[in-house]
Amino acid sequence: MNNGLPRPVTAVVIVAAGSGERLGYGMPKARVPLGSDAILTHALRGVAAAGVARQICVALPPGDTVLQELCAAFAEELRAGHDDNQENPLPVLTTVDGGATRAASVRSALAALLDGTEAVLVHDAARALTPEYVFHRVVDSLAAGAVAVIPAVPVVDTVKMVTPTTGDDSSIAPELVTGTAPREELRSVQTPQGFRLSTLIQAHQAAADFDEKQAAAVTDDAMLVELLGVPVHAVHGSTQSLKITTPLDLIIAEGLLEGPLGIRWVEG
């Protein structure tokens, strides 16, 4: 899968500080069971199996000792399964307190990255079943010269633009269609999103003074980089990289885990 170019020294940030309210478990999303393990454990295993990270930094809900212990247990799992004769050293696993927003959590993690880190992948713990080859595609694109790169899949639904109805029309329907987006130009964006570290730090510094409305409009790190005028490239993602947000998503993820080949052995 490697394009033969030297890969940058890479850290992976896992954003795992979400509340998970829409899942309805009454606990942070990263702690919700997926099969026999927590969502975060699956995400950690996927990152480690990809073998692209010198460091894995996890942004957790502040004070969540359960998830801190889960990360410590995973570090032990890694050490127990590692052969000292293997070519790739074990990644350094660190945790930080996340913030009130996703961007704040990412900034907290960026401040904790090891010296010498050249590139960073920002990954949602909720995309716990992302196949390893997606990580490789992102890192190989960075190695080829991209400053920012995202995995994405084509949009299969027709997408309409709408506006709220007013006056007498509001009794007919709450919204009115104003146009149809060209589906062939649309992509659903996934994680991990990869960046040269200096570029992502610059993007977050520029966004630090956003007001509440501006901050709410930013839904991923690639948007912050776009606002700098930096080109963002896209590689093929995977339909298996679903984001676990609702109870239905969790059911689908459970089904993928129980598939005959297993999520990590199906090429996309």
UniProtKB/TrEMBL annotation:
Annotated site, Positions MEP for the nucleophilic attack, chain positions: R183, K243
Gene that produces this protein: ispD
Organism: Pseudarthrobacter sulfonivorans
Pfam families to which the protein is assigned, alphabetical: IspD
Gene Ontology MF: a single term: 2-C-methyl-D-erythritol 4-phosphate cytidylyltransferase activity
GO biological process terms, semicolon-separated: isopentenyl diphosphate biosynthetic process, methylerythritol 4-phosphate pathway
Signal peptide: none
Family, similarity comment: Belongs to the IspD/TarI cytidylyltransferase family. IspD subfamily.
Keywords (A to Z) from UniProt: Isoprene biosynthesis, Nucleotidyltransferase, Transferase
Keyword Transferase on entry: yes
EC number: 2.7.7.60
Gene3D superfamilies: Spore Coat Polysaccharide Biosynthesis Protein SpsA, Chain A
Protein name, UniProt field: 2-C-methyl-D-erythritol 4-phosphate cytidylyltransferase
CDD domains for the chain: CDP-ME_synthetase
Top EC class of this enzyme: transferase
Upper lineage: Bacteria, Bacillati, Actinomycetota, Actinomycetes, Micrococcales
Catalytic activity entry: 2-C-methyl-D-erythritol 4-phosphate + CTP + H(+) = 4-CDP-2-C-methyl-D-erythritol + diphosphate
Pathway: Isoprenoid biosynthesis; isopentenyl diphosphate biosynthesis via DXP pathway; isopentenyl diphosphate from 1-deoxy-D-xylulose 5-phosphate: step 2/6
Site positions for Transition state stabilizer: R22, K29
Described function: Catalyzes the formation of 4-diphosphocytidyl-2-C-methyl-D-erythritol from CTP and 2-C-methyl-D-erythritol 4-phosphate (MEP).
InterPro entries: IspD (IPR001228), IspD/TarI (IPR034683), IspD/TarI_cytidylyltransf_bact (IPR050088), ISPD_synthase_CS (IPR018294), Nucleotide-diphossugar_trans (IPR029044)
